[in-house]
């Protein structure tokens, strides 16, 4: 056992250097004055005051959360039926379908998002097709639609795989039991399949909502300068304004929001299974 | 009573494997029917066809006179208690039981009434709010039964429902299930591979094997009059003896004619005679219909299971000559060699090879200092197809030599006409070390002596079950010992309340109606 424990040390060092240390740096930057040298640290809350005093940041944050929620809901609405269809297929077809769903993730996310620019552009593919029917050209780029589209496109495989996982693990005997007790296919789905697949949906939400709420390059590429989300604000603090302290403070606020929202989803999940749909 | 369910010539194939070969079965109202058979016999398939989860390839199922083909499970007045219960993990006990009623959209107060009644029936009044995952196997079992019964089905299907419970709980649930069935008064169709379970609970038992029904009858009928060898073996323990039916009510086995009560066989038809262990009595030899020797006695709690051998098996005795030879030493080449004398049949001589001789003589050579094996390069011998003793000399390339004797003798075998058996073995030479180092001495002795037995027609080999010898393997000394090999004789398993001593000579009796005669064709 002791020698096994020793094998964990490299991992501990790795995670200390690459996970814990950056986090600590963010906290240090968020609470200190700009231009500090490490020797002379000056504590300050200015960065947080700046965030909460300017309503613009609050609006951007609200918009980011809104976009992330919309993205998550669309991912559930599109992903659940597909996951269900895959789970109903023969085992061999299931493997093929899961493979197909994951193929897009092999290509760099940035490249894929650029491709959407080409499709949605004023002279792009979509508008030329619509032009054939005498519609348009329509402004797709630099709208909320384009941003949500890009996010759904990028994150939906995570939702599908999570839901598929929980559906495919479901014991057939539950379905037989429901049918045996008089439930037709729709009732079986509503009363047994759906409730039992909720844990998959919850972890799908976590995997879609988190990257969606903090994404910066999708709104940058598809939303242009006009559709700014909180991720873009953070990015610009680090890359253009050079205000690392303020960027770190926003990151920290985001992290706290995410932790709280994850806690709430987890609790919802627990209540859901514990309560057992009484009534 | 009305026929509630009729299976008519049901055939079912899975991946071109036939699992049901034309099942015909009628089930009546209020019956407790058990489908009994080993795993893979098709009993669960019948249940699933009735439940509507699979469709038969041929034949039809009538329920209340209506053909059930194409009727989905949720439209059948049948409920199932699944093998692993299949309770919904996201619902509590109450909601699991109420599931079917809610689907039927019954009023809330009626649902509550019915569910509470069911909880009382299965003795779980206090557990309504419990999560099913927090309940023990026995409690989950009760919930599953309540969940099925609350829908007031005409038939309850139970698929090995007690399989996962321990023995004590299983017995308790058996009684309870029977009680519940009497109380609700509906048909139970119960699938199990446990014969005791079938005997205690059922009104009717259907014995199945390999997709076919072997026998249908009440527990008592099936126990007392098994239809064939399979049924006799599957239900309870049996002695099954080969016999010949001379005429009605006269059967011959063990060269003796006995009265029996069975009729309708052809003259001199070969039959299987079944005698239950509890139907045989042990009496003094003078009063016995058969005489035998007690071979073993096992205490079984309420009785002793006594094995009596009436006819010993065929026996053969061989001699084992045990020596303690020193290996031949060749100091100049640092080599040692060992080998032993051996017996060989005259009939084996034409096909004898050098490899055979080396193996039989167990000839080995090795470097004395390192024990590294050295190959034997030369085997010299002269041989005639005549009885006698012939020297064989083994030698290595370094010049180490060892001479032993090969003894050619007649084939040593015994033929027993009465039992139609032949048994064969050869005399052997062994060293003290061979005996002491043997881990499974009886098996080694059989191998060394090449002991074999087969039927007189030469077709079937017979196991050699007895190996007797009169030496102590731990403290064996140089000398010659007799080893006797034997086949199994006629043995009877008898349940007695008295304890007999192994080796006692006893008589066996039974009454004519304890002999159950079955045709040989039923043999599976």
Account of the protein in words:
The complex is a heterodimer of chains A (279) and B (524). Chain A has 279 residues and is mainly α. Chain A has a single domain (63-275), classed as MetI-like fold, CATH 1.10.3720.10. Chain A is built from 13 helices and no strands. In chain A, helix 2 (9-30) packs across helix 13 and helix 12 (230-241) runs antiparallel to helix 13 (244-275). Residues 274-279 of chain A have low confidence and may be disordered. Chain B has 524 residues and is α+β, with helices and mostly antiparallel strands. Chain B folds into 3 domains: 3-231, 3-Layer(aba) Sandwich (Rossmann fold); 237-312 and 509-522, no CATH class; 315-487, Sandwich (Immunoglobulin-like), CATH 2.60.40.10. Chain B has 11 helices and 36 strands. In chain B, the strands form 8 sheets. In chain B, strands 6-7-8-3-9-10 form a 6-stranded mixed sheet, with helices on both faces. A 5-stranded antiparallel sheet of chain B has the order 13-12-11-14-36, with no helix packed on it. Chain B has a 5-stranded antiparallel sheet with strand order 15-35-16-17-34, with no helix packed on it. In chain B, a hairpin with a 2-residue loop joins strand 11 and strand 12 (250-253). In chain B, helix 2 (93-103) packs across helix 3, helix 2 runs parallel beside helix 4 (137-149) and helix 3 crosses helix 4 (137-149). The longest helix of chain B has 18 residues, at 167-184. Chain B is elongated.
